[in-house]
Amino acid sequence: MDKKKDGFLVIIMKNIRAIIVSMPGTLQRMLQKSIEANPSVEVTGIVHGGLSALQLVEQSDPDLLLIDYSIPIDEAVAIVRNVKQKNPEIVSIVITDTSHQRRKVTEAGADYALSSFNFEPQLQDILNKFETGRFSGQKPPDQPSKNLT
Predict the structure, then answer these.
(1) Which DSSP state fits 97?
(2) pLDDT of the chain along its 149 residues, tens only?
């Protein structure tokens, strides 16, 4: 991606690959736009369910997996558990509606469990950690899983 800044051409390399698991609609488009607002992150795939998510993870080797609250919680838990067993380095972010759901996905291994209410600033903070190199694709040792409400 090229951008002009102060008259110079700046080449921005997108080196963080993200997969979104979301049902089609406004929320899915909003998540994609929010993620792609970060110049280091590229959405490499959008899927609508568990099996297709697991297949895409195997095929594309993403750095980041984002699951939103349009996916049933039991399916989100199964996706996170399976991905973390096979690929623990993939950072998983799950957006949920309730604290009970956030607890379930955190117990399944999600790196971040965000509340569906005003999740965007928290998501941008996580993405900025990638961009600035403070988050190399694995949870830092001093950074336990977060249940953000």
Answers:
(1) S
(2) 445 555 555 444 558 899 999 999 888 999 999 888 888 889 999 999 999 999 999 999 999 999 999 999 999 999 999 999 999 999 999 999 999 999 999 999 999 999 998 899 999 998 888 766 655 444 433 344 455 54
Euclidean distance between CA atoms 38 and 97, whole angstroms: 25
DSSP E strands, 7-140 = 8-11, 16-21, 41-47, 64-67, 91-96, 112-115
Element (H, E) at 26: helix 26-36
Element (H, E) at 83: helix 73-86
Cα(135)–Cα(74) distance, integer angstroms:
28
Beta carbons of 79 and 108 less than 8 angstroms apart: no
78, exposed or middle or buried, with CB in 10 Å at 0-12, 13-18, 19+?
middle
Taking the complete model, does pTM exceed 0.85, yes or no? no
Domain boundaries defined on the chain: 16-135
Q: Would you say domain 16-135 falls under CATH 3.40.50.2300? A: yes
